[in-house]
Design a protein that fits this description.
Blueprint: H1 41-57, H2 78-90, H3 97-120, H4 127-156, H5 169-195, H6 199-218, H7 245-256, H8 288-291, H9 304-307, H10 315-321, H11 325-369, H12 372-405
Length: 406
Amino acid sequence: MSAPVKLSFGLNKGGATKKPSLGSKPLPKKKNAFGSSALGQDDSDDSDEATTPIASTSKATAGRPMVAQPPANTKLSRAQKQKQEEQLALDATVFEYDEVFDQMKEASKVALLDKKKESAERKPKYIGRLLETAELRKQDRLRAEDKMVQREREREGEEFADKDAFVTPAYLAQQEELRKVEEEEKKREELEAGKSGGMTSFYKSYLDASSKEHEAAVAATLAKPAEGTPRTSFSVAPPPKEKTEAELAAEVSAQTGRRIEVNDDGEIIDKRQLLGGGLNLVRKPKSDADAGFSVPISQRKTSDKDDSRYSSSSTASLIGQGLSPAERARQARERQSRELERQMLEVERKRKIEEEEAHKSKVQKVQKRNDESKVEMLKRQAEERRLKRAEEAKKAAAAAAEGATA
């Protein structure tokens, strides 16, 4: 009889320890709460952990090219230092970017403060000009009325020379005011004509006003250019030279191997020999008008449309551009005055025509009432009525006498 099998339970403290499997991962070690300086083993553990990812990724990065990283502390080369020294010798402030920027900002701030001061003292922008325009129109109207009255007096001539003229003080004051206004306008026009030079002065003042702020911003950074500085030169490329038919035939023969027949004058006999397989595109020759700036000025042709700019019809506009603003304003006011005077004369003429027609109609009515034939007829009718009343009175008296005798 075999012995019974003994079963034992417990911990295996002794014996050989199991080897860790290849697939198992080492357990992460606990970090010391007091830092790595407390125990010397922590440094070694950290170094072991740091080396493990490098070993694992060495195979993956073996086939990749390594990119050289720039060093942290790069030093300028000798050529760069020499170039910087040359630039500093030319201009000591060449690398003072912040200082130059601050100077530009200071100038911009000054310009901005000036604008704010102007805006703080700003006055109404349009109402003053509107009032001045209304006053000018009123003066133009008074002037036109005065000229119209003077022309009426000239047409009347000596008809009312023996009559006394009645002039009010208000009319005299108005005439004096108009005379002063005309004198002031003449003086202003003379001053403006002496100062201004037409369109040239206008463009000059416009450019000065537009560049004022820019000059204030860069005034502190302006420097004279060094002598010997190369200047950029611009040149117009000549138009491409067109190939002759002989050159074109030789080129096609070299490319395709076909023999292109050319006559004694160098012209291709049959241009169909130049055609190849596929779509054959032929560049159209450009005319001189389409060539633009590639054609010299002496060879350019202007069309009739361009020549119309220099026709006599535009001469007046070109002459008008040379006038001063004061002269143009004076001419515009004269045209307005003439137009206003013409309108007033037209209104006066229509009024006179209406008055004459009304007078004629009244005269015709009176003439119809005072016609001689009608007067005679009315007299005859009145005489007949008087005779009829007299007969009736006689008959009544006779009848009364007969009744009294009876």
